[in-house]
Sequence to fold (791 residues):
Amino acid sequence: MSVKIVAFCCNWCSYAGADLAGTSRLNYPAQVKIIRVPCSCRVDVQFILRAFVRGADGVIVCGCHLGDCHYSTGNYHAEGRLTQLFSLLDFMGFERERVHLEWISAAEGAKFAATMDAFVTQVSALGKNERYRNMYTKAGAQNE
Amino acid sequence: MRIGVFVCHCGSNIKATIDAEYIAAQVQQDAKVVHAAEYPYLCAEGGQQKIINAVREYQLTGVVICACSPRMHENTFRKTAAKAGLNPYQIEIANIREQCSWVHKNKDAATGKALKLAKAAIARVKLALPLFAGESAVTKRALVIGGGIAGIQTALDIAEAGFAVDLVESTPSIGGKMAQLDKTFPTLDCAACILTPKMVDAAAHEKITLHTYSEVEEVEGFVGNFTATIRKKARSVDMKKCTGCGACWEKCPSKRIPSEFDCGLANRTAIYTPFAQAVPNVPVIDRATCIKFKNGRCGLCADVCQPAAIDFTQEDAVFTQEYGVIIAATGYQVFSLDAYGEYAYHDSKNVITSLELERLMNAAGPTGGKLQRPSDGKAPKKITFIQCVGSRDITRGKPYCSKICCMYTAKHAIAIKEKYPEAEIEIFYIDVRTPGKGFDEFYRRAVEVYGVRYIKGQVGKIAEMNGILHMQAVDLLENKRFDTTADMVVLAAAIEPSPGAKPLAQMLATPMDTLRFFSEAHPKLRPVESATAGIFLSGVCHGPKDIPETVAQASAAACKAIGVLAKDKLITNPCVAKVNDKKCTGCGRCIDVCPYKAISLESNAAEANPALCQGCGGCASLCPSNAMDLNGFTHKQVLAEVDALCR
Fold:
């Protein structure tokens, strides 16, 4: 079974960390697909929920380490927003383990690859996200 | 929309793992893709020409490049697009090298993922709007905050390049900490001899305006267009009339005020210049201690002032001025030793800090350069130095190395030995760090030529009994505990950022690290720029530095500042926040989240200043009514990308 993972990476640290994983030829599972955002604070909760509705099985948000944000405080806002999202997911009865927040610097190519490995394993253990994908086919399609 | 897709082989870097031909064929299933091609090296001249030709031939309105990371060649391809007559923001890059061919070995999996990434980029480019970089004018004037050696050097360099500079200093004179020093390492030339000519140059330079005894109160604006509000505190002396004769402070009856410049080791009067070579050489009245201001009687200074420069009614003058760049040069202060009770700094007058020793050794200092114990004025026979007091101490002090202490302690030891060859000197250290030009040679001279005794270890406790300082100490190399005595103890106290640095950083909306040093834009490649455009860092406000390093950084900051001032127009990044007035409810939550103060409320709707906005998008994802969006990373674009990747 192959799970689908969407990774939001901030341009300055984590996306560069992913690039370094590439330059260093560090393997990680191909089902991880990266979306570049300027800052982890650009990740709207909508984006994460939309990914699940469209069939993603896990979403990971990666930003600069706290204190290192290119925009000085963006990652704190991202952390606050995800904390809220976790409460919402608990309320919805949705496995919060499908969402993960990680700080990865531009120098941490190895950490990027290891984090993606671990997250894919974690999400694979939960299996496919059938519930919310179904929600899209029933309700979401009508809104298109 | 007519989209062209170009797949790069990057030699074999991409092609070895990804079937480029397959991707070029597959993307053409999308009705909007009118052209797809592959090429060995798209970034090369020939590759770029291929793109330009295709844009023209197929009248493309959007281009997707499947190649390396956008961090590598996004700008290259934007320029290519512009050459072809396409808006540079209507190209998208699918990163199929760093994210596919280099990290996935399985050709099918890598090709499948590359196709997904290409489709996501196509989805994005379909929604990409043409964006236009704006222009903003540059005010050709620099503001340097802090008048120590860092600020002076930066101001002089900018002025020499022909731009006007305002140098703002909070104390009555420029000169900073360096003016307090006796000698400088590793050459032992006197600090005043090399500093005062620079102070005079700064004051005399036609392009430099000094604002001493002044504070920056408010800063608004953005690179090229800052507006600062500066308060010139009332000096109570007319600077134009004063001749600097000194009759006023000679007559002043309030004579027992601890001198800040002499670290409290000597007294000053209520009307005073901090030191003899002060620039400007115009005294100020310290209103908190002046008898005239306290109870109205006195005014002796006014009586003796022949040019009638004393003005008790003078008020603070507040003015605003526009600047193109701002340079922070706020320097440092000596860390408070309150947490280090075991060193008896507050209990014994004969335990002093290194900066206090500088004053005691200085020919212009309170003792005229004679080394005397502060308690009884006797010459100390044995002096003990303790290193790293507060530095490299995570629990009570600072985690960092203050960097200058090893060298100035070696300097003190040599200077004392030069004057008093019989004096016995002991130095307790954790490590001796001497990485600088001529530094280690200097330290070795202290040990080998002057016989200074270095002990790797710590002093645990100091107690003064009958005028002698008794110490319990540890010698780590001998692995023994022992007792020792000294007539005087000198503590190499850590240095920390000036207290004014934190409010200034908030005013400038520029980040600091957790230790209250200003953060640089990049630790290796942009060490003198702050993360905020147009704000530069000079000297110790950015991290501990010695004088040569400070001067080098000060000149580097000046050079970067001149780079901005020399331009007539600045190009602004168009990927910034934009507000939909119709949706905005004026709740103002975006204002709080913006680190650049780029958003303001104008007639009940938010307005984002494109020159201030750096494009983080925090406001866009926070907006409860979806009124805020981010050019280049719009909601629709990101959602389309999500959809394409999850399909």
In short: The mean pLDDT of chain A is 90.
